Amino acid sequence: MIGVLINGAAVLFGGFIGLLFKKGIPESIEKSMNKALGLVVIIIGINGVISNMFRTQADGSLLSSGELLLVISFTIGTLAGEILKLDDKINAFSGKIEHKFKIQGFTAGFITASSICCIGAMGIIGSLTSGLTGDNSILITKSILDLVITIVLAASLGFGVMFSCIPLVIYQGSICLFAGFLSNILVGELLTQVCMVGFTLIICVGLNLMTDIKFKTVNMLPSLLIPVIYYGIRMLF
């Protein structure tokens, strides 16, 4: 659990450092930073999707898998998110925080940083390893990466980035605490499929930063549960 707390502290500290840089950044430079950061996030997402979708065979050829489940996951997951109006609820909650504390742009920073820092195999594997063996090396490595990412994000998107440490600690902490149970589930094809969905979400986050296209990424979050449900049903039968 110490590794999870270190990761949360790294995100909080990175956000704080980024805010110090943000104060002196002109609006024109801030927009350019958003586009550059969006491009980097898209590349990270594409790399993650490709690395989880393709496998090299013994003869050197590439074999792809999981495309159909990826489509089904986003179709059903996004539909569920739209019905539940998750994005509207998160924006309403974040809007109240913005209004009460007079924090402009809280929502964008919070959602973007939470998506980037929480989604990915490193957080899942690191939390499982920490919970099962007490080895925090993976989470410490992730903390260094998240520190750099949140500095850049906060310099561009502001105060909301710091608060992404809350869902990160809850999410990774839960995996760490229930590692004994989850270690037999979050492996193999299921982990690959969840990560594929997650990195596709990160591509959407990058597009939101870089372009005027705005994906309601919060409404897409239930997509992460569809592979779990699918493989759960397969295990029963």
Largest sheet: 2 strands, antiparallel
Number of helices: 12
Distance between the termini: 35 Å
User: What is the H/E string?
Assistant: HHEEHHHHHHHHHH
**Average pLDDT, to the nearest integer?**
86
**Strands, total number:** 2
Question: What low-confidence regions span 5 or more consecutive residues with pLDDT below 50?
Answer: none
Strand line-up across the major sheet: 1-2
Beta-strand residue percentage: under 5%
Shape estimate: globular
- State the helicity in percent bands: over 70%
Q: Which class of secondary structure composition applies to the elements?
A: mainly alpha
What gyration radius follows from the Cα positions, in whole Å?
Answer: 18 Å
Count of the separate structural domains? 1
List keywords for this structure.
transmembrane helix, two-stranded antiparallel ribbon, globular, mainly alpha, transmembrane, 237 residues
Structural notes for this entry:
- This is DUF554 family protein.
- InterPro entries: DUF554.
- This protein has helices at 2-22, 27-53, 67-84, 86-101, 106-118, 121-133, 137-157, 165-177, 179-182, 188-210, 217-220, 225-236, and strands at residues 54-56, 62-64.
- It is an all-alpha fold.
- The protein has one domain (2-19, 26-236).
- Strands 1-2 form a two-stranded antiparallel sheet.
- It starts with a helix and ends with a helix.
- The mean pLDDT is 86.
